[in-house]
Amino acid sequence: MQDIRIERWAHTLVHYSLAIKAEETVAIQASPLATPLVEAVYREILRVGAYPVPVIELEPLEEILLCHGNNAQLSKPAPILQMLADHVDARLIISSQSNPKALSGVDPGRAAKRRQAMHEISSVYRKREQAGMFRRCATLYPTTGYAQDANMSLSEFEEFVFDVCFLNDQDPIAQWKALSAQQQRLVDWLVGHRQVHILGEGTDLTLSIGDRVFINSDGKRNFPSGEFFTGPVEDSANGVIHFDVPTNYDGHAVEGIRLVLREGKVVEASARQGQAYLQQMLELDAGARYLGEFAFGNNKRMNRVTKDILFDEKMGGTVHLALGASYPETGGVNQSALHWDMICDLRTSGEVWVDDTLFLKNGELLIA
């Protein structure tokens, strides 16, 4: 992938997404498969006068730990990860797995123990982010494994990624700023509204957004992005929702999720595929059965399912809800080691009402 678009990608990540400044320390986490992008980002960080810290991960090691580690080893994050969380000014995660389903055979109970341990690291990052001391961004480098999940050839998937990241444009940053302005108008309109009603095939769910804050996700924390999200009032969700977009979560393929919620809590849950895994995640901790996020997808270039949440949750005309942890900046207070985004496709048939206003119909936002 020696391509001018790799250089644009690196430039956008460093100057727009993370806004790196001289003298800052920047962690770059990736596998060797993402070497072209890692090298480009590394060079760009050096040009700024900052200090890049590459953390190159060998993909099989996590599976080895999960399969052979004892309870103490599963429960203890590596000290270097704690050091990074305490000290870096910014962190770029480049997902670059050769096999996104490599952990599908791992005992979910052992994976849950590891997830809870890593939640301690995430909490440090989150507290520093809230204090304005840390910035983060996650992106995905195309690999054969991701392409296979998306039912594309590698070259086709590469072109898809370049397009949804606006990297075919000579000035991607200008495109992201334009999307940001469009989303901000919608975020501003939502201020002061209280009730959301989602209607679709197998879906009739209400929830409260009263006194909560919508966040404009415009290519900074996630790249690509194109969504605006909040934390619903924790005890407000009532009804049923069907998530018809298949997902791959921590290596587990899950499809056809149906949740019934009463007073915010999931009281019934089923999945056409991955039922046992879904149930185990719901038992992860006390917050796993409550919603931590409600969001509108708004990237119109994201027009096909890839089975990767980073992309699919941004599809224009969809909504997604996450079980588990809230983002504190939204006003959400739910706490959990889980944050699992599930996508409801309303592009063909569906509505979202905000109070008495039809906000979205058949995938189209109706608010100017």
Protein described:
- This protein has 368 residues and is an alpha+beta fold.
- It folds into 2 domains: 138 residues, Thermophilic metalloprotease (M29) (Thermophilic metalloprotease-like); 193 residues, no CATH class.
- It has 11 helices and 20 strands.
- The strands form 4 sheets. An 8-stranded antiparallel beta sheet has the order 14-13-10-6-5-18-19-20, with helices on one face.
- The longest helix is centred in the N-terminal third of the chain and has 23 residues.
- The mean pLDDT is 95.
Write the layout of secondary structure elements.
Layout: H1 4-17, E1 25-30, H2 35-48, E2 51-56, H3 60-68, H4 71-75, H5 79-87, E3 90-95, H6 108-130, E4 135-140, H7 144-149, H8 154-164, H9 172-190, E5 195-200, E6 203-208, E7 215-217, E8 222-223, E9 227-230, E10 238-243, E11 247-249, E12 252-254, E13 257-262, E14 265-270, H10 275-282, E15 291-297, H11 309-312, E16 318-324, E17 339-345, E18 350-354, E19 357-361, E20 364-365
Parallel strand pairs: 1-2, 1-3, 3-4, 4-8
Antiparallel strand pairs: 5-6, 5-18, 6-10, 7-9, 9-15, 10-13, 11-12, 13-14, 15-16, 16-17, 18-19, 19-20
